[in-house]
Specification:
alpha+beta
Length: about 650
């Protein structure tokens, strides 16, 4: 009887397990012999305006070895295969297959070709890894952002993460009786979908030109850092955005680090006065002995006294002259004027972390505020706000929305969003914009911005120097030296903003920032791939009084520290000569001999001619390809032939 009962219990339990609980136990059994694993999707690419890759996902493999799983008869052959496939030393390979360890990871990551040689070998495991790769290094790192621990951090990566990240897939990996993955027994059950693409307005050549000019200026002035922005005033497109701090370009101080602009704000004060018919450029203002005390604060001018016109006050950057001329502006009108130019509000650029700067409402002003604001104090702005405001002066009075993204595409390359230029508002009339621009040309020709002069084309611009200010600590001993210019003045194609933080020695914007603007413009003229419209440039050249020596020739003659090309009168029939000079600026150059020069000096000399530079490794320069003396075109790549230095 007992045996019968026991058999009956076993049968009932078996039926329960196989019939009622069968599905549940089957799931547990499958889980012991396989595992479900996520397959990462390739992140979409970030491109420049011409389709050049700025950031792209690159498939690599991590190779690991379980030495105790290797068959005794195959240890030697696996070791040799690992050594040749992974290009490892004998010592590194011996470490990989040493039985003293249960699991060893090979150093580095490897291209997908290793799968062909190593897949399916018992004891050797391959893990697919998607790395974010920047073909041009850190050239646009701040704009692009980064991927940290699989998450987007900053820049376009963060702003367009939903577009770029794609959708992961899933795979089933078979496991043996002790839970180890079985080589070759992996099954894809859901294919990952790659992310879309984001095409920027950034121009790779302009970004490289701006980076080079800024880096040289920071080094030569021993500044703490700096910013350069290049924009198209007609469209609001950002062609280059470089922020440099501590030798790194990963920050975005162009949008998140406001500063007191100083004299670069004066053109907007004058614009507001003209727009409201409160003064004319020919009106005069008495600056006395060059000092003026307002509510206990004394404004100073250096070397100016007596009466001068409003135009001259702007040209020579008279603090007293501009502050006195601004008195007819009511606090409400002064505040409204600055807000209309975009100060005190975010621009709306497609980047995280933008700040609005500081522009207090009139009810929070002191008795000094009207005079201080007129000359660029008691206000903080971002470099981007300043570049867009100068764009309004350059394009005839329209404040444009900054445009960093041109198109967004899906994984198949189909356009899902196309960004068109957007006008924020008309700030001033064309007549007012052109009148102020003509004064800014005089600023560069014989005012405070002469070091921004360009031989072939007229440049409009304004320098600024302001003491560094911290909201908690107040004014410090350092300075922000800046210059904003646009060219050609009669038909502007580029606005260039430059700011250097705490330059040592000479710290005036006209002395240290204006030359960066000039260097950027000259390199843009020389480079083949920049977005300049050559036909428009030639038309502008006919309207300008141009010297007989084009800017590029001046650079070739003295590439390390080019002199300011002299200005001179031209005959009434000099239009053809101006056109010829402008055309010569776009022609080829003779490749100089840089043998024996330090790498940095050689690269700087070649970059100054609009050439790209490459080298295989560090060492002593023994020549170039092409050879010295060969005729090359701006934009061509010159390879430095380098002899490696001996470690001994």
């Amino acid at each position: 009887m007992g045996w019968t009962v026991s058999a009956l219990v076993v049968c009932v339990r078996a039926a329960q397990v196989q019939v009622l609980e069968g599905a549940e136990w089957q799931v547990l059994a499958d889980a012991q012999h396989s595992t479900d694993k996520e397959v990462a999707a390739a992140r979409g690419a970030v491109l420049d305006r011409d389709g050049a890759l700025l950031a792209v996902s690159r498939e690599t493999y991590r190779v690991s070895v379980a030495p105790r799983e290797l068959q005794d008869s195959s240890v030697d052959s696996v070791r040799d295969l690992l050594r040749t496939t992974l290009d490892l030393s004998a010592r590194e390979t011996a470490h990989l297959v040493s039985r003293k360890r249960r699991w060893v990871v090979a150093p580095g990551s490897y291209p997908p070709t290793v799968r062909q040689q190593l897949a399916g070998i018992q004891g050797v495991y391959l893990e697919r890894v998607l790395e974010r790769y920047h073909p041009h290094g850190d050239l646009a790192r701040g704009v692009i952002g980064a991927i940290l621990d699989g998450s987007a951090a900053g820049g376009i990566e963060q702003a367009f993460d939903d577009v770029l990240r794609g959708h992961p897939g899933r795979e089933v990996v078979a496991r043996d009786n002790i839970g180890r993955p079985i080589p070759g027994e992996t099954y894809l059950v859901e294919t990952p979908r790659s992310g879309g693409q984001v095409e920027l307005t950034i121009d790779l050549d302009m970004q490289e030109i701006a980076r080079q000019a800024l880096q040289e200026a920071v080094e030569s002035s021993q500044a703490d850092g700096g910013d350069v922005l290049v924009t198209d005033p007609k469209t609001g497109e950002v062609l280059a955005m470089v922020s440099l701090r501590g030798g790194r370009t990963g920050g975005l101080s162009s949008i998140n680090s406001p500063y007191e602009p100083g004299s670069t704000l004066k053109p907007f004060t004058v614009s507001g006065l003209l727009a409201r018919d409160l003064v004319s450029l020919s009106d005069t203002v008495d600056i006395g002995n060059g000092t003026w005390t307002v509510a206990g604060r004394t404004l100073h001018d250096v070397g100016h006294s007596g009466r001068m016109t409003v135009a001259d006050a702007l040209r020579v950057s008279s603090n007293v002259g501009i502050a006195k001329a601004a008195q007819p502006l009511t606090p409400g009108a002064q505040y409204e004027n600055l807000r209309d130019f975009g100060f005190g509000a975010v621009t709306g650029i497609d980047l995280p972390g933008e700040v609005s700067g500081l522009l207090r409402r009139p009810d929070r002003w002191t008795e000094q505020s009207r005079a201080s604001l007129a000359i660029g104090y008691e206000i903080s702005v971002t470099p981007l706000q300043m570049a867009m405001a100068y764009g309004a002066l350059a394009n005839g009075g329209l404040l444009m929305e900054p445009r960093l993204v041109r198109e967004v595409r899906d994984a198949d390359g189909d356009v899902i969003e196309h960004r068109e230029p957007q006008v924020v508002r008309r700030v001033i009339s064309e007549d007012v914009a052109h009148a102020v621009s003509r004064v800014l040309v005089d600023v560069v020709e014989d005012g405070t911005g002469t070091k921004a002069r360009l031989g072939v084309f007229k440049v409009a611009g304004k320098s600024g120097t302001a003491r560094s200010y911290d909201a908690k600590k107040g004014y410090g001993s350092g300075h922000a030296a800046s210059f904003v210019g646009f060219f050609p003045a009669e038909d502007p194609q580029l606005v260039i903003f430059v700011k250097l933080e705490n330059p040592k020695g000479t710290y005036y914007g006209g002395a240290v920032a204006a030359p960066v603007t000039r260097a950027t413009m000259e390199a843009a003229l020389a480079a083949r791939g920049t977005p300049l419209n050559r036909a428009r440039l030639l038309r502008s050249a006919r309207q300008e009084i141009a010297p007989p020596v084009p800017a590029q020739v001046a650079f070739a003659a003295q590439p390390i520290d080019p002199p300011v090309p002299p200005t001179g009168a031209a005959d009434a029939d000099s239009g053809a000569d101006a056109e010829a000079n402008a055309a010569a600026a776009f022609a080829g150059v003779s490749l100089p001999d840089v043998s024996g020069l330090p790498l940095r000096v050689a690269a700087r000399r070649l970059h100054a001619l609009g050439l790209r530079v490459s080298q295989d490794y560090q060492g002593d320069i023994i020549g170039t390809t092409p050879e010295a003396g060969a005729r090359v075109l701006p934009g061509d790549t010159v390879r430095l032939r380098v002899r490696a230095r001996s470690d001994g």
